[in-house]
C-alpha cells in the first residue's frame, strides 16, 4: 500500500510541476478547505500557539490569522510537491534573489564562509537556490524524513541547483572538513525549530513562551569564522518570493556567549509579528519544558 501511495505521489508531483501556477493555486484553495474545515489539521495546536504568542489579540483576530495561515500552508504544501519535479528555469522565476548576489559574492571574495540563518517562515524550501548566489560550496543542513522514499525525493529536490544536503547528525563534522580544506561554504540553517531534549541549548522567552533554541549557528560561526546573515523570504504574491538579507554579523567572535542566539530569536519574533500568517504555527514548537533549577 505504501509503494502504491508513493507511486501516485510521484505522478502528482510531475503533474503539479507542469501545470500553470494559476491552476496550482486553485487546487491549493481546495486543499485549504479540506485542511481547515474537514480534516481540521492540527487546529488545536495552531490556535494554542497563536493564543499563547499573542495574548493581547482578541479571539476574532486569532481566527483571522489562523485562516490566513491555513491558506498559506496550503500554498506551500502544493508548491513543495511541485518543486520536486519542477524545472529549474521555472523555479528561478518564482524566487527573486538578485539583491543578495553581490553581498554573497563579496563575502566569498574575503575568503570567508557564509551562514544563512532563517526560520520556518514563508516557504523555506526555496532556499534551494542558494548555490546561485556565489561560488561558495552550498551545504543545506536538514533533518532526514523517516520514510526513505519521500526522503530521497526531497533530498534530490534540494540538489536541483547544486547544493549538498547534509543531515544534522553529520553537519558539524562535514563543515569542519570543508573548513580544514579551505573550501568556502554557504551553510543554510533553520534554527527556530524545537531542538531535541538531549541537545545543549539556550533557553529564553520566544513569543511570550519559554523556549529552547539551537546554538548551532552561533557555535559554527565562531568556530569557522563565518559571516552570519539573518535571511527571510518575503511573499510578494502567490508564486513569487523575494529573498532578503536582513541582518549581517561579520565577526561573530566579537560577541559574548548566547548574544548572537538572542539577536537571532528577537529577529525571528520581529518578522513573525509583522506578518504572523506566514509562520509555521502547526508545529508543536513549545512542547519542551525547561527543567526547574535545583
Largest sheet: 7 strands, mixed
SSE string, helix = H, strand = E? HHHHHEHEEHEHEEEHEEH
Tally the helices.
Answer: 10
**Secondary-structure-derived class:** alpha/beta
Write up this protein.
The structure is a single chain. This protein has 294 residues and is an alpha/beta fold. The chain has two domains: 2-83, no CATH class; 94-278, no CATH class. 47% of the residues lie in helices and 18% in strands. The protein is built from ten helices and nine strands. The protein has helices at 2-18, 21-38, 43-53, 59-83, 88-94, 98-109, 148-158, 168-180, 216-224, 259-274; strands at 95-96, 114-118, 137-142, 164-167, 185-190, 202-206, 209-213, 227-237, 240-249. The strands form two sheets. A seven-stranded mixed β-sheet has the order 1-9-8-2-5-3-4. Strands 6-7 form a two-stranded antiparallel ribbon. A hairpin with a 2-residue loop joins strand 6 (202-206) and strand 7 (209-213). Helix 3 (43-53) packs across helix 4 (59-83). The chain is globular. The model has no long low-confidence stretch (mean pLDDT 95).
Q: Keywords, please?
A:
294 residues; alpha/beta; 7-stranded mixed β-sheet; two-stranded antiparallel ribbon; globular
Amino acid at each position: 500500500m505504501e509503494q502504491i501511495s508513493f507511486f501516485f505521489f510521484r505522478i502528482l508531483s510531475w503533474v503539479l510541476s507542469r501545470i500553470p501556477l494559476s491552476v496550482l493555486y486553485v487546487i491549493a484553495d481546495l486543499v485549504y478547505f479540506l485542511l481547515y474545515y474537514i480534516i481540521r489539521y492540527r487546529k488545536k495546536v495552531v490556535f494554542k500557539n497563536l493564543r499563547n504568542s499573542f495574548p493581547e489579540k482578541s479571539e476574532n483576530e486569532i481566527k483571522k490569522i489562523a485562516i490566513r495561515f491555513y491558506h498559506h500552508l496550503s500554498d506551500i504544501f502544493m508548491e513543495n510537491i511541485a518543486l520536486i519535479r519542477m524545472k529549474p528555469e521555472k523555479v528561478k522565476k518564482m524566487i527573486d534573489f538578485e539583491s543578495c548576489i553581490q553581498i554573497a559574492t563579496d563575502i566569498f571574495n574575503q575568503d570567508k564562509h557564509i551562514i544563512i540563518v532563517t526560520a520556518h517562515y514563508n516557504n523555506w524550501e526555496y532556499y534551494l537556490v542558494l548555490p546561485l548566489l556565489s561560488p561558495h560550496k552550498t551545504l543545506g543542513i536538514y533533518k532526514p524524513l523517516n520514510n526513505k522514499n519521500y526522503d530521497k525525493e526531497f533530498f534530490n529536490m534540494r540538489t536541483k541547483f547544486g547544493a549538498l544536503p547534509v543531515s544534522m547528525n553529520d553537519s558539524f563534522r562535514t563543515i569542519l572538513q570543508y573548513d580544514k580544506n579551505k573550501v568556502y561554504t554557504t551553510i543554510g540553517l533553520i534554527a527556530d525549530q524545537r531542538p531535541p531534549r538531549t541537545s545543549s541549548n539556550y533557553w529564553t522567552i520566544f513569543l511570550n513562551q519559554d523556549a529552547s533554541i539551537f546554538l548551532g549557528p552561533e557555535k559554527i560561526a565562531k568556530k569557522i569564522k563565518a559571516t552570519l546573515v539573518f535571511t527571510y523570504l518575503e511573499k510578494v504574491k502567490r508564486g513569487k518570493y523575494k529573498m532578503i538579507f536582513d541582518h549581517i554579523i561579520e565577526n561573530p567572535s566579537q560577541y559574548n556567549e548566547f548574544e548572537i542566539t538572542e539577536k537571532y530569536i528577537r529577529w525571528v519574533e520581529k518578522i513573525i509579528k509583522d506578518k504572523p500568517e506566514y509562520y509555521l504555527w502547526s508545529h508543536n514548537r513549545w512542547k519542551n519544558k525547561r527543567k526547574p533549577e535545583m
